[in-house]
Amino acid sequence: MRIQFMLWTIWCCFLARALFYCAAVPLWEGYDEYSHFALVQYVATHNGQFPLGAVPPNSSRAVSESRRLTPGAWVIHDTNRGILSYEEYFSLPPSERNSRRERLKNLPVEWSREGAAPRESLYEAQQPPLYYWILAPFYKLVEGWSIPSIVWILRSLTVLIASAAVPLAFWAGRRVLRNDAMALGVAVAMTSFPELFVLVGHVSNEGLAVTAGALFVFVVLRVLDGPPSLGSGVLLGISLGAALLTKAYFLALVPVAFVVLCYAWFRHAASRSDVTWQAVAAVGSSFVISGWWYVHNLLGTGTLTGQFEDAQAMASNKVSFLSAVGEVHWAKVFDLMVYSHIWLGGWSFLVVRAWMYRVVELMLFVAIVGVCIQAIWERTGLPRRKEIGLLALPYLTMVAGLCFHAAQVFRIRGSGATVGYYLYSLVVPESILLIAGLARTMPARMRLFPIPVVTLILIGLEQFGAWFVMFPYYTGLIRHNALGRLPTARIEQFWNGGADTLFDRLSGIGPVSSPTIIAAGALLYGLATAVLLGLAFKIAVSGHRTMPEVPIAADSPKR
Q1: Is residue 192 one of the residues assigned to a domain?
Q2: Residue 22 CB contacts under 8 Å (≥ 6 apart), including other chains
Q3: pLDDT digits (tens, 9 = 90+) for 220-230
Q4: Residue 316 lies inside a defined structural domain of this protein
Q5: 11-51: per-residue pLDDT in tens?
Q6: Would you call 179 helix, strand, or coil by DSSP?
Q7: What are the two backbone dihedrals, phi and then psi, of residue 72, each rounded to the nearest 5 degrees?
Q8: Cα–Cα distance measured from residue 246 to residue 7, given in angstroms and rounded to the nearest whole number
Q9: 8 in a domain, yes or no?
């Protein structure tokens, strides 16, 4: 009961922290949020029909107009098209800002069914449809509400979906670490990642991807040590198929499923019939769920992913793929991948101090060293060699997929780039390996010590990024200087009404129009963050005395 209570507490902390981001982050500041929203809107207004044509449909007039009534992320601001940056927006008189907000809240409902003029391509139609099918019925229920209110509802639903990764992280951690305290530490670490809430706190299929990736990892861990059966194969196929119908980058999980099924073939030589049926069930159920989408992509674009970069690269004869691999500046690609995974302040691509990234990178490096040591010299109470392989393999294949994306981008733009926040779809194996790797570098009696260390470092970076960079920038308290650099906010800017100004301005550009509600959300967010830190230290101090080892499954070899 105590373990369940602590798990529920961590889950509630995740929700409180994530829901604050839903309320406070400005409209369309999330990565590609306006296009994701427009696609949900399209599917809802077309009775569940997903756009499958070669040419993406037009975005709605409502979404197009909303972009001109609210400030835009730094990446997409365009004064000529009426999309103002945050600096430009808060240079407007208060009366003009209030007028824009009122017009935004009162856009005609019928505009959601009219096309934008000039045309704005609904480019997220390249995404698999599962997320949009899930959210479309909820959109229909609140179709008559204002766009900010609908965005708040859809963001909150996305967070609820993503929050399912918390218990999955605990169960997966418990399976390989065989200790409830360590498993709770995995859930705490996952809930502390600073970029995670930026990613799941907006309308986007990334929230569903976090849960889909967590579910797949948990299922393959079960299949790894369990007896082969038809039911296990179906469960593996459903989890893989759901992931593939959420994001195309989950094609990186196909080799993982293949390895698990092959492992079962060699391990259970006496029951090859059951192994065969398990494999048939896994492949068949996965293909039934998602195969049609990838066949459609292959026929329509000549690529499995259906992504525009892949299709354009395939059609281009300027640079071959092998030439691109040789010419890409990989040091810059990996640098961008790492810091955009650690923390990137939304679509404005805000960053924190360089040394903060170095601290987290050092922690990750030490964890990698620890994982390698554990793979060579196993220690009881940490993942076994085969479990390390299974947890690391999807991460490695996903990184390989991002490198492929960078090379394809180079072929069409002459400069390779990709972003690391896509790796949050595998935040569960990352959290397990992070805690286990750090624990392996310490004496056995101190294996719980990494839990508060990881939590403190990650939450510390998040607090600085959120309160001294992200929200001050969104509200005009800090601005880009003449050199294009963004200074951090100073503590004294929050005194003498500065905090009130921050909440008041967030209510004028975000989905929630009440400064009081945003301030209350910030209070709950702060309380949840403090509770999370307290839990991390409590687990480290008392976990080894009060939480016994979880018995190894009967079909698992003991060490």
Answers
A1: yes
A2: 152, 155, 156, 159, 201, 202, 511
A3: 999 998 899 99
A4: yes
A5: 999 999 999 999 999 999 999 999 999 999 999 999 999 99
A6: strand
A7: -110, 155
A8: 27
A9: yes
